[in-house]
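Review session, final week

We close the course with one last complete record, chosen because it touches almost every idea we covered. It is LysR family transcriptional regulator, a protein from Trinickia fusca with 304 residues. Go through it on your own first, then we will talk.
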Amino acid sequence: MNQLEQMASMAIFAKIVETMSYTEAARVIGVSKSAVSKELARLEATLGVTLLKRTTRKIEITDVGRTYYEYCARMLVEMRSADAFMEKYHADPVGNLRVAAPVTFGNVVLMPALNQFATKYVNVQVELDLTDRQIDPESQNVDVAIMINRSKPEHARGKVLMEIDWGLFAAPAYLGRHPSITDPEQLSRHGFLLFRGPAHTSVVAMQKHKREVEVRARCVMRSNNSRALLSSALDGLGVAYLPRYVANEAVDDGTLVPIFPDWTFEKRFAFLMWRDDPFVAPRVLSFIQFLTDHFANTHTPSAA
């Protein structure tokens, strides 16, 4: 009898002792009475001792059987504890949640939702990695990643969180020092502050109704961080091409002015990505659902 078989026989022996009945033990375990008797006989043969004495009227536990039962009972308690742990694990979000997101999007858009999630799920410890490197949940030590792109990668599971609109913005001081901009063709005379990274561009494409314009941008500064470009725009360095969520606060307080706000610029999407795993941990599932609900209430996702 190997150890796994012996553990099964120990459980049967313990159940006989607890019920003091072969018949009741067989009913509780879900096997036949003869199977219970057979397993007990195998266990006694393996151990080389008599654990139980059975008469026509009752079952008696031997001294060695009583002591051996204590070990068997502890084993069953640990098994039940393990089962209870797994039930709780599958029912309640718990453990470390590793999240990766772009730096600016993470600070401006994600953090309010992440703070609410951490407040609600106190047994989940969030580990946030803000980076503008492309993160692949399949190959890197990340549970959930947010990627900003034109389309969802085909190799991973994911959904659209929100649509990201871009626009042109400049400080009133910059506009006051330069010729007015009344037509998109005039933009080629101006210096641009442009993103360097996944959203890298040297041509600003614009559309209004049926008119489409592509402006060859003369770049005066590039950065892989939109907030750095925002700072330069606020200092009047040039016309910044930014995601609207980065510029909205400055537009609201009048320190930036949108240029051609009724034109449509490029669109990208924030994708929530996670591993293609049939056994997704509750903390990950809860986070996916939480972000989905949060962005559905605060933003309008669109399909890419």
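Two points worth writing down before the exam:
The domain at 93-304 is CATH 3.40.190.290 (D-Maltodextrin-Binding Protein; domain 2).
The mean pLDDT is 88.
Good luck, everyone.
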